[in-house]
Specification:
Layout lengths: L9 E3 L9 H10 L10 E8 L5 E7 L6 E10 L2 H17 L5 E9 L2 H7 L8 E11 L2 E10 L10 H6 L4 H5 L4 H17 L3 E5 L4 E5 L2 E2 L3 E5 L4 E5 L5 H10 L2 E6 L4 E6 L1 H22 L1
Parallel strand pairs: 4-5, 5-6
Antiparallel strand pairs: 1-6, 2-3, 3-4, 6-7, 8-9, 9-10, 11-12, 12-14, 13-14
Helix pairs in contact: 6-8
């Protein structure tokens, strides 16, 4: 029998509440960082002291990619001082630990339109995520809902023509650095791409093999040859269902690249024979999302 009862929850304002304080919210996140909706993160530090004498509320990290999230909490409305502090702590941490990728995260009860307008001016240059929290009570139970209202903008990868020309190379460059059959995997995948995106061709670059149509780069998918395998990178928004499909099909998937918004899969010639239909569907999806 299905659920038939309905009860309307009550909103609770956390700012000024005698019991549900910022420390209380912080502990809920420490107990389960996944409630922020940023992935299965781990807690690296709490109240992390900064050289400027302030303290970073939370430092979280993705255990697979190593990416770090500098998280600042604010009850009530966002304000200028909190925005500045969030960015300042992010900047300090990325300079102290440049081996990691870093992202600033501001969590507040009320993300104002003014805040979104201000952040939109530099979002992309500064990786910043805004998460709005809402505390609700149902009977004697209280819960907090976290909703991402502003995501960071992925920074393009050498897509402008001038940069592409500066780093352009040829097929021989890659064949000298990997086995010829590895580069041939890119040829096979190009044929699949042409089945739904006619006119695409391989564009050789010192950092990767991209795609171009009439010599104009289109990097919804790119290839990175290695000595004995090819890494296929697909610009697809992260999706839990797709994560599960990758795991179930046995694809040699690398951690999702959060910075560039790409799924990454290692392919050998044998892998291509077994997983070609699946890779084709992923490339179609990447192409569709890029339109």
């Amino acid at each position: 029998m299905g659920l038939t009862k309905y009860a309307r929850p009550t909103d609770i304002a956390l700012k000024g509440h005698p019991e549900f304080t910022e420390k209380w919210v912080q502990q809920r996140i420490v107990d389960d960082p996944s409630i922020l909706g940023l992935g299965d993160l781990i807690v690296k530090d709490v109240e992390r002291r900064q050289p400027s004498a302030g303290r970073l509320d939370l430092l979280l990290q993705d255990p697979e990619s190593g990416r770090r999230y500098e998280v600042e909490l604010q009850l009530g409305k966002t304000d200028e001082s909190h925005i500045i502090r969030t960015i300042e702590y992010w900047d300090i941490e990325r300079k102290r630990y440049p081996q990691h990728d870093h992202c600033a995260v501001l969590v507040a009860e009320d993300i104002t339109s003014r805040f979104l307008n201000v952040v939109s001016l530099f979002n992309g240059a500064i990786p910043l995520i805004a998460v709005q929290m809402r505390a609700i009570q149902l009977g004697d139970v209280i819960s907090i809902l976290f909703t991402k209202v502003l995501d960071e903008r992925p920074i393009g990868i050498e897509e402008d023509e001038a940069e592409s020309e500066r780093t352009a190379t040829d097929r021989a460059y890659w064949e000298a650095r990997s086995k010829k059959d590895v580069v041939a995997i890119a040829d096979s995948l190009l044929q699949d791409v042409q089945s739904f995106a006619p006119g695409m061709a391989l564009k050789y670059n010192r950092h990767y093999i991209g795609l171009a149509k009439q010599d104009v780069a289109d990097l919804f998918v790119l290839f990175r040859p290695r000595r004995d395998h090819l890494i296929v990178e697909l610009r697809i928004q992260r999706d839990e269902k797709l994560d599960q499909e990758l795991e179930e099909c046995g694809a040699d998937a690398m951690p999702y690249d959060l910075r560039w918004g790409r799924y990454r899969i290692r392919l050998t010639t044998a892998d291509l024979a077994n997983r070609r239909p699946f890779i084709l569907e992923l490339m179609k999806r990447a192409w569709s999302e890029a339109q």
